[in-house]
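Justification of computing resources. Each target in the renewal requires a structure prediction run like the one illustrated here; the chain below, 289 residues long, is used simply to show the kind of job we budget for.
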Amino acid sequence: MTYAFRAFAPEATHAEHAGIRRCEFFAWIACVFFVADLGRIEVARPSEIIPTLVDSVTSRSVFYYLGIYAVIRLLLESSANRQTSRWDIGFGFAACLASMLPFKSVVWVLATAWAIYLYATSGSDRKAKAAAVVLLAIAANNLWGPVIFDVFEATLLRADAALTGTALVLSHTGLTWQGNIVGAPDGHRIIILSGCSSFHNISMGLLCWTALTKLARPTWIRADLPFALGVVAAVILLNVARLYLMALSPDDYFYWHSGFGSQFYAMVTTLAVLVISLWSVCRNPDVST
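Resulting structure tokens:
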């Protein structure tokens, strides 16, 4: 399949594209995608542009920027000396122009297509393929994860409620759960809505794990899977613990939903994901030559 594709889209190794390394060109394309995403803001007055842009940049998770760093670094570290082909340049510039279209999800649709193209045409270039995988993880977190959540929202919310409700029933008398509502039948109850789902943090946690793993070791190994599952389990358990505490009383709800408890939960979740991801990297270093 690779040979057939190259026959259809031959590499341009002659003088017209000499001096443009393929991975450097693709790194610039990635930068365009990220700038287009961060700069996609809506304002009513010109005076709101700077504050809104600053908010767009500062509101992103640290794992988002870790993913950006991983994509660009992996591309620039690629040892392959392939030059850009006509197909690379045409696809890259077309994607850059299309990223300016006024549609919210267009950047990540294009980034997904770009990542698939990069992976399929990189041959034995391990770091270019690793960059493509990380970009797919960023696109999954920003676009495909929310799409999947919208499709299975009711089921996913009931799953969170079931875990939280089971913990409450086992540890407290008089507390129950039904559907996505947990708490006391005649007292304090909470409704688990989309913003409280574990699913959102799972995709973010897996983005962190993917970025750190690919920075340390461009190829997958079987021993990676347990650590990926560990990230998922840690995120779910911590989110269920937070929902459990929120369901105990009105004071607990406000503390863990909008008080310091919500910040503490975010810090602990971030730390847990980082520790598991770094543990994976240390336990399974890159031993390839």
